[in-house]
Specification:
CATH architecture of the largest domain: 3-Layer(aba) Sandwich
Oligomer: single chain
Number of domains: 2
Helix content: 25-40%
Number of strands: 12
CATH topology of the largest domain: Rossmann fold
Largest sheet: 7 strands, mixed
């Protein structure tokens, strides 16, 4: 276990991790062990799916999905009947995605190409009618990573193409230190307790996931954590404009019951 990773876990989750001591093994939520936990929690979530698929119906040509993960969006995107490239960096996520693709009809599966790659630095040598970055994954990138993302998106968008991304609207995060504790049922029947910690003014929030109930978990106990960027939508709009991408639409997504809300942004290459 990385001592630096353990030390970065704040609040109640950090205290619980310290209490568990050597009984817990801490992983990044996107590494090989974390990928399975991520998929159990979010792999079949319907969040933002309807809105993204609906928005894509007004585009034409092949679709590029960035940070495809374990395929939560990939599967419904394939129902559009268009060629899809699914780019993902984490080997554990790619493994799950490829396993899932084997379960869909061949005709649909044949339209999808899984591409190992970094969403902030990729060159596929082709253009797409639409590029999608869901699951508020833009928040996983720092300023340098986001600048790289925008450059790559602009390079890969066909004339008239659209860049669709979802982001967290941080206006409702509140003040002082905010800590949310949520119990989550995994798609495979497993249960988790998720701790989300953010301090006012901080540029990241920390999400840490424990099995639940913890009392019945057998050591070694897998605990997963990740740090997610916090920045206003207005900052994203300014960054897009600086990169030559103009925001053409911004709409709220249905509330999820959490203390913050997500939005769908649509951008095009500036004329």
């Amino acid at each position: 276990m990385s001592a630096d990773l353990r030390a970065a876990v704040p609040g109640q989750a950090g205290a619980l991790l310290a209490e568990l001591g050597d009984k817990a093994v801490l992983h990044d939520l996107y590494d090989e062990a974390g990928a399975s936990v991520y998929h159990a929690i979010a792999g079949s979530s319907p969040l933002e799916v309807r809105e993204l698929v609906g928005a894509l119906r007004s585009t034409v040509g092949p679709i590029l999905e960035l940070a495809a993960g374990s395929g939560r969006l990939t599967m419904p995107l394939l129902t559009l009947g268009r060629e899809l490239a699914a780019l993902e960096l984490a080997p554990g996520m790619i493994r799950i995605l490829e396993e899932r693709l084997q379960t869909v009809p061949v005709a649909r599966r044949s339209r999808c190409t899984v591409v190992p790659g970094d969403m902030s630095a990729f060159d596929l040598g082709r253009e797409f009618g639409a590029i999608v970055l869901g699951a508020t994954s833009v928040s996983l990138l720092d300023a340098t990573g986001r600048a790289g993302l925008y450059r790559c998106v602009r390079r890969h968008l066909a004339p008239g193409g659209k860049f669709l991304l979802t982001a967290v609207d941080v206006q409702d995060f509140g003040s002082s230190t905010t800590e949310q504790v949520m119990d989550v049922d995994g798609a495979d029947g497993t249960r988790f307790r998720m701790y989300e910690h953010w301090t006012e003014g901080a540029d990241v929030r920390t999400v840490t996931v424990f099995p639940h109930p913890l009392e019945t978990a057998e050591p070694p106990i897998t605990v997963c954590t990740t740090r997610i960027g916090v920045f206003p939508v207005a900052q994203l709009e300014a960054e897009l404009a600086q990169a030559g991408l103009v925001l053409t639409d911004c709409q709220p997504l249905p509330p999820t019951g959490s203390h913050h809300h997500d939005v769908l942004l649509v951008a095009e290459v500036a004329a």
